[in-house]
Design a protein that fits this description.
Number of helices: 6
Distance between the termini: 72 Å
Shape: globular
Structural class: alpha+beta
Number of strands: 15
CATH topology of the domain at 168-218 and 225-282: Pseudouridine synthase
CATH class of the domain at 168-218 and 225-282: Alpha Beta
Largest sheet: 9 strands, mixed
CATH superfamily of the domain at 168-218 and 225-282: Pseudouridine synthase
Helix content: 10-25%
Strand content: 25-35%
Oligomer: single chain
Radius of gyration: 24 Å
């Protein structure tokens, strides 16, 4: 696509006769989603032989198609005065206790309220190795996952931390409460992860293809209908813990995308995932000494566990 968003002219080859207009354009303009292309069609920005056409129009071959794209606004990180809980900081790095509900950086239509914006307001300047949109960001946590996240303050620290993540030398330890009672006291899940073709916002570990992923777990506590796990990930795939545990039939509590129910009878509503990045261990980028940062369990998760414990200890009704 032309960088200035000017008109694009396409000719439909005979081999594409019978194709839908929107699907043909998706093959020709791979940098844009089908949703965006359909929006252009609805707005009259796509003309077939000089006339507007519906997205489902079948092509015959030989048509001249003109597209007037609207370029999306460039995303950028901007400082925002947002409270942050800092667990550790020095001249090279910052460790933040990210709350559930906060996204790490702008994207997918979200521009404000991000961790990056909060960091820029507080520190002014971060590593630029990750680009303008993700200054300082070495790794990420899902929006509804809380806990430790590392941020690089300079490019040298960024390269060191990124290399440790790539070499799988960073310890990443999580707490997860899952539905169901896992049989084994400990185990591992080694299954590739790829995007779910039926629901693109979800990942799948059930298709036997994708990027290699390894998750290890051990049971910390058992409750009727639930299991509290300590989870260690050896790789860092999108939704790795959520997809792997769901593939066992044990979705993370509160994670409706992967099959958890919205409510649990007798317990308060949990409007987040019960998944918390408890500990990150690594070598300091300047000293080379081991450093481990820990985050306590958030109050809302601790309260939910207490409610679950009370329900567990409640005597069964007499018959």
């Amino acid at each position: 696509m032309k960088p200035d968003g000017s008109t694009i002219t396409l000719w439909v080859p005979a081999s594409q006769a019978g194709s839908r207009l929107d699907r043909f354009l998706q093959t020709q303009l791979p940098d844009h989603s089908r949703t965006r292309i359909q929006q252009w069609i609805r707005e009259g920005r796509v003309r077939v032989n000089g006339a507007a056409a519906p997205q489902a129009q079948r092509l015959k071959g030989g048509e001249r198609i003109e597209v007037e794209p609207v370029l999306p606004p460039l995303l950028k990180a901007v400082p925002e005065d947002i409270p942050l809980r800092v667990l550790y900081e020095d001249e090279d790095l910052i460790a933040v206790d990210k709350p559930a509900g906060m996204i790490v950086h702008a994207g997918a239509g979200r521009h404000s309220g991000t961790l990056v914006n909060a960091l820029l307001y507080r520190y002014g300047r971060l590593s630029e190795a990750g680009g303008e949109l993700r200054p300082g960001i070495v790794h990420r946590l899902d929006r509804q996952t809380s806990g430790v996240i590392l941020v690089a303050r300079n490019d040298r620290a960024h390269r060191s931390l990124a290399a440790q993540f790539a070499a799988r030398k960073v310890e990443k330890l999580y707490l997860a409460l899952v539905h169901g009672e896992i049989r084994q006291e400990q185990g591992s899940i080694e299954a590739p992860i790829t995007r779910d073709p039926a629901r693109r916002i979800r990942m799948s570990a059930r298709l036997g293809r994708g990027r290699a992923a390894l998750t290890e777990y051990r049971v910390l506590r058992r409750y009727p209908g639930f299991t509290l796990l300590e989870v260690r990930i050896r790789t860092g795939r999108t939704h790795q813990i959520r997809a792997h545990l769901a593939s066992l039939g044990h979705p993370v509590t509160g994670d409706r995308l992967y099959g958890a129910p919205r409510r649990v009878e007798g317990l308060p509503l949990l409007d987040r995932h019960f998944l918390h990045a408890r500990r990150v261990g690594f070598l300091h980028p300047s000293t080379g000494q081991p450093l481990a940062i820990e985050s306590p369990l958030p109050e809302e998760l601790a309260d939910w566990l207490e409610a679950l414990e009370r329900r567990h200890q409640r005597p069964a009704p007499s018959r």
